Amino acid sequence: MWDAIYPYLAAILPTIGLLVIAYVVFKTIFEADRRERKAVAEWERSHGASPISSSDDESRPTT
Question: Which residue spans traverse the membrane (predicted)?
Answer without folding.
Answer: 6-26
